[in-house]
Amino acid sequence: MVKTNQNENHAQQINSRNLKLPLRLISYVGKPFYLAALGLIFFVYITGYFFKTIGKNIFSYITSILLTLILALPKLLIQKHKTYVRSKTLPRETGLLKKIKKTKLLLLRSFYNLTIFFVSITFKLILVLVNKSKKKITSWKVQSLEILSASNKYILTKIISNKAKYTTYLPHLKSQLLIPIKKIAGKVRAIKPSEFLVSKRKKLSIQINFYVLFLRKLYQKTHRFSKEKVTIKHIIKPKSSCLRLKIIGLVIVLMFTLSLSVSFAFWKYVLKDLPSVSDLATRSQPVSTKIYDRNGILLYTIYKDYNRTPIPLSEIPVQVRLSTLAIEDAEFYSHPGFSLRGIARALYKNWKKGQITGGSTITQQLVKNTLLTPEKTLTRKLKEIILAIKVEKTFTKDQIFQMYLNEVGYGSTAYGIQEGARLYFGKNVENLTLGEAALLAGIPKSPTQYSPFGAYPENAKIRQKEVLHLMEVNKYITQEQKIEAEKEDLAYAENKTDIKAPHFVMHVRDLLEKKYGAEVVAQGGLEVRTTLDYNIQRLAENAVSTEVEKLTKLNVTNGAAVVLNPQSGEIIAMVGSRNYFDQAKDGNVNVTTSLRQPGSSIKIINYAYALSNGYTPASILDDSPVTFVIPNQEPYTPKNYEGGYRGKLTLRSAFAESRNIPAVKVLNSYGVKNMIELGQKMGITTWNNPQNYGLSLTLGGGDVKLLDLAYVYATVANYGNFPEPVSILKITANGELLEEAGCSEKNIPFTDIANATGSALAINVNDNCKTREVLKPEVAYLITDILRDNPARAPSFGTNSQLVIPKHPEVAVKTGTSNNLRDNLTIGYTQKYVVAVWVGNNDNSPMSRIASGVTGASTIFNNIMSGLLANEESLAWNVPAGLVQLPICQYTGSLACQGCPVKMEWFLESNKPAYACNSEQIQKILTENKKPQILDHAWRSDE
């Protein structure tokens, strides 16, 4: 009794919080950890079966071990606790005992048994891997160690604390207690952990009694004994145990089903149709992409002949190999086929962009280019990684690197490092310098983007510097070598690529790569029918080349032209420069898609807004000196092209003669922001922030693309409907239709439409043509009527200028010349064609003064438009409803009166003049002194 009292006193000193913590950890951590481990076991088992060809022996052993574990799980888990103990004197259940009962003893026992099992399996696996035993090792029988019930723990405690009183219970208890008990020197105690030894003779199992010792100690120190007699029939109720077993069984079934489903999906979508790595030697060649004009004439074949000359790795200079490793895969000789760092970096970028790209090693790129399709999906990425592992196990690193260097594309028809060196530098790979090797190494990522022969030759040099920087970072070269290579003067070989309409082809190729990716364009076998008419293309090319040659004495070295269908938005011809292959003049630069100043040709947007908001062709404008004073800016004084002034004149005359001062005053009346917004609707893609522009915008102060400007005029030619740009009519691949333009080839002839409806609006009857109305048809007609009015522009251009197309008075045309004489443009249109022409210099050097309408772009325009209309009848413009024609006084813009010159003018029905002029008004105008104006409150760009 003394010992009992001491135990009770000692129990009062125990911090209950410290005792509860281990129990809570075991209860809450054990279950989810065990279930997670169980799910992982099933997944690894199922997938291990399919991976055993990769891992060979080790995976087959793991598979057999996990199978043994699955078969043993019922024995480990489903063990009913049937220990029922009766006693005359048992302790009352206290709060702590109830908490012990709630610690999920069944899960603890199962988790403990599983731990013991894993220990034995680990030893077995180690023996197999180190080849210590080649004989079949039978499964070790592991006897589970059950956690004692509360009653067993109580009796064990009493035996240890007072052996004399409970000696008579020993025969019975030895059959109930699962912990070995031995009597030594008259004392009964549990066997120490050190006494549990594996003995083949006694066939003892591995026993670890850490949990039992912990619970026994805990029980001794915390339980208070009561004299009250309590009978406990059982600790774990059979119903509760049965329910727990059902739950565990259900979880096992669900985990197995889930694992089986995931494994089946992984097999079906990833492993089922995996190609063999042996296909690297027997694969079929990729199919080239062909680009045709609208009539089936072949313009260009992308990777037409798959030109490849394999060479051994030993013949490839070290600096060439290192440059490729630096930019593509610096970890190539250390990773197993894929790079975890690269995948993590790609996942981060893809999470931001929403695409599945990047992170590929050289091995993965080889697999992707030779064994897989170029689709961008997660399934293909998994296949790529698995095949990369197989390739790494099948071939050496040097073999893989050699195959990659002989397989990768360098643009055009060049495949492999040897043909890449010959294409760009006209030499074999062994003769490449460091600078040449670095430039060549940067091309495969995107030959269109980084080729020095492409549309962006400056990108090739930028990419070369990136390669050299990475070579220095990876200690492949020194800083001195890097600097020397950057300064190296690269001598490119002459580009002899067979290509028709090269600027247009590259334009189409860029569109294809943005939509389908460079790999599909290079290897997908696309058949692309474009909008280009090669016969018209040759007409435009000859006109540009011939006339620019004549303008050489005026310091004009280049020209460009584009021809559109204003109804469908189709590009019919595109000449980006005089000679695509003239590297000295940057001939590969496409001027039609480059930023240039449009000069007065941009006034069409200014007057389109004015005529839509109260102005009429008869509105009187003042062509006299003016200075605009804007706070915090230099005063702005616009000047006309020839430096003179015309005084009072109508909007028609000011627009047709391209007078600058009246145009600036009109813009000042309503604001630059409104002009920018209308320009964006009509096709300008380069005007973004109104803060960057001022009143000079109407004179060409904002850079635009010639192609965009052509669509502005196409909008007017299409009666105010903006046509969506179209370059491709149809794309097929392996006989399957990928896309087709809905408008082309389906347009009803223009004359039939006009005759059937009597309205020019009927030209746009085809719903498949993607257009949107940005101008009223009446306003578009007013602009066209002004720009085709040869007498109205005669004071500035004469009556027989290059703007006049014989027998075709329907042609509307506008010129433009930048103030610094770096750009000269002429843009004209009919209902069927829009022709936009530019001349100048790619280096932005100024031209000699060119008389607008006499030389320069207007001559090229005349040749192209005359050729287009040579065999066509004149097609008159139909007058939209809502317009009226009235006689007006050219001095006042009002209805005509006696004493003033009369002219017939078109008006919108909504703002036609209501009053006629009078003789006094005419006399005042004739005698008025014209003085320079000073406008102190000019419109500001920030308003």
From TrEMBL:
GO terms for molecular function: penicillin binding; peptidoglycan glycosyltransferase activity; serine-type D-Ala-D-Ala carboxypeptidase activity. The chain crosses the membrane at residues 33-51, 58-78, 111-130, 247-267. Residues 559-865 form the Penicillin-binding protein transpeptidase domain. It is found in: Cell membrane. GO terms for cellular component: outer membrane-bounded periplasmic space; plasma membrane. Keywords: Carboxypeptidase, Cell membrane, Cell shape, Cell wall biogenesis/degradation, Glycosyltransferase, Hydrolase, Membrane, Multifunctional enzyme, Peptidoglycan synthesis, Protease, Transferase, Transmembrane, Transmembrane helix. GO terms for biological process: cell wall organization; peptidoglycan biosynthetic process; proteolysis; regulation of cell shape. It catalyses: [GlcNAc-(1->4)-Mur2Ac(oyl-L-Ala-gamma-D-Glu-L-Lys-D-Ala-D-Ala)](n)-di-trans,octa-cis-undecaprenyl diphosphate + beta-D-GlcNAc-(1->4)-Mur2Ac(oyl-L-Ala-gamma-D-Glu-L-Lys-D-Ala-D-Ala)-di-trans,octa-cis-undecaprenyl diphosphate = [GlcNAc-(1->4)-Mur2Ac(oyl-L-Ala-gamma-D-Glu-L-Lys-D-Ala-D-Ala)](n+1)-di-trans,octa-cis-undecaprenyl diphosphate + di-trans,octa-cis-undecaprenyl diphosphate + H(+); Preferential cleavage: (Ac)2-L-Lys-D-Ala-|-D-Ala. Also transpeptidation of peptidyl-alanyl moieties that are N-acyl substituents of D-alanine. InterPro entries: Beta-lactam/transpept-like, Glyco_trans_51, Glycosyltr_51/Transpeptidase, Lysozyme-like_dom_sf, PBP_transglycosylase, PCN-bd_Tpept. Gene3D superfamilies: Biosynthetic peptidoglycan transglycosylase-like (1.10.3810.10), DD-peptidase/beta-lactamase superfamily (3.40.710.10). It comes from the Bacteria. Residues 299-471 form the Glycosyl transferase family domain. In the C-terminal section; belongs to the transpeptidase family. This is Uncharacterized protein. The lineage of its organism: Bacteria, Candidatus Woeseibacteriota.
